[in-house]
Write a structure and sequence with these properties.
With 310 residues, the protein is of the alpha+beta class. 43% of the residues lie in helices and 25% in strands. Helix 4 packs across helix 6 and helix 10 crosses helix 11 (292-307).
Length: 310
């Protein structure tokens, strides 16, 4: 089969198509720069240049390359291989770019850099705009943070692996030092902050504590007893018709029937947040007796509700 020889005109058209695509991919292209691609050999622009440009633009459109013209500028809207990412996905890409700074020079780092560059070239217009917002509102430079707290992070990772029970102090809200007994769960990476997630059995809650806010850690036991995660009991009293109709859950026991017709219930193992919301629904027919933490939590719910009507 005879090999087809491409004409000089055909080759010139291909080069112009590729040059046009390159301009649109790299940035928003001014009309004055685009039309120069179709000037004659002396660099002169004629009316024929506009006609030729329109033909090329129609060709791009047929190939799935969507370009919009607005205020004498061309904006690339879509490529046949364009990629759309949401904010969380762009955040993950930015974290990957930051993490690459820790890698030594070599094939792995070069491959990752090439991969990220190829990925960013394929962002559709919405993703490019969103990426600018994400980049301007997030701090992804983790290197200084990690170098400063490298030892603390490593130690906390060891605590998580060993499941040591800890007596931990940290700086909380309003710069107040908080002391808790807890079990470390895992290391959490949020934005440019590393947190130690711990489980506090007293409140039955997971707490994320920034590494740089931890002031002191003492190991209490070599291993955690998982039963402690559900050992805190909640005592509450129910009154009125609710006391008569209330059905005990599987994890609840009736502590006493009182002379005024109320009943006292002991709840073991229910999530504090879910229990707080449930008891709050009982309104004045329910009184939390213990622990103090849950009583304060119910008070907070009531006060926050009252603020909506003040």
């Amino acid at each position: 089969m005879a090999r087809r020889v491409m004409s000089e005109k055909y080759n010139d058209s291909c080069l112009r198509i590729f040059a046009l695509i390159k301009m649109f991919v790299e940035s928003d292209a001014p009309f004055a720069e685009v039309i120069k691609l179709f000037a004659d050999e002396n660099g002169n622009l004629t009316q024929k240049c506009n006609v030729t440009l329109n033909k090329y633009m129609n060709t791009l459109d047929l190939c799935g390359i969507k370009v919009k013209k607005r205020k004498n500028k061309y904006y690339l809207q879509k490529m046949p291989y364009s990629i759309h990412l949401n904010e969380h996905e762009l955040y993950a890409v930015s974290l990957m770019k930051s993490a690459m700074s820790f890698l030594p020079k070599g094939k792995v780092k070069t491959s990752l850099v090439t991969f990220i560059q190829d990925l960013e070239l394929r962002y559709d217009r919405n993703t490019k705009n969103l990426n600018k917002v994400v980049a301007s509102t997030r701090n992804f430079n983790l290197s200084f943070y990690f170098m400063q707290f490298e030892k603390q992070i490593t130690q906390c990772e060891n605590y998580c692996q060993e499941k040591n029970k800890l007596d931990l102090s940290y700086v909380g809200e309003e710069a107040k030092v908080v002391n808790i007994v807890c079990v470390p769960e895992e290391i959490i990476y949020t934005d440019d902050i590393v947190c130690l997630r711990v489980y506090e059995s007293l409140t039955r809650q997971n707490i994320d504590i920034p590494i740089d806010k931890i002031t002191n850690i003492n190991v209490l036991e070599a291993k955690d007893n998982s039963a402690e995660k559900v050992c805190t009991s909640v005592i509450f009293t129910l009154k009125g018709n609710l006391a008569k109709s209330y059905k005990l859950r599987d994890w609840e026991t009736l502590e006493s029937k009182n002379s005024d017709g109320s009943i006292t219930v002991c709840n073991r193992g229910e999530d504090f947040q879910a229990l707080s919301i449930r008891l709050f629904k009982y309104q004045d027919n329910c009184v939390v007796e213990a622990p103090k933490y849950l009583k304060n939590n119910i008070k907070k719910l009531i006060n926050n509700t009252l603020k909506n009507y003040s």
